[in-house]
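Predict the 3D structure for this chain.
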Amino acid sequence: MNIYFLIAGILSFLLGLVHSILGEYLIFQKKREKGKIIPSKRSEGLRERHLRIIWATWHLASVFGWCIGAILIKIALGQSGLNADFVDFLIQSVICAMFTGALLVLMGTKGKHPGWIVLLMITILLIIGMV
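Done. Predicted structure below.
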């Protein structure tokens, strides 16, 4: 079992969960009409259709995080049944995605959003796990 991949996978799941919950609470709660799931209260400069796609994209990022977490956990537990070259390719792809994500969040929020730290931690764990 690769403990580094396992921790990275768990962090990916947790990051996605926290991302969706806090997004709903801090961003979308006030943009939703009572009893509706999808926010639709537009504001100046933000049409309803734009708000709806922002909401969908917000949660899509969480879903992708959960899927990456599942892949990492499967690989960590050694149950992948995949050849070593393909597993290396998967891990390197996830490293690139997480590192790029960390940089985007760091630059986009001037370091004020803690998500970049978790994305960077996942990156580092995966690099260590490959050694």
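The chain is about 75% helix and 0% strand.
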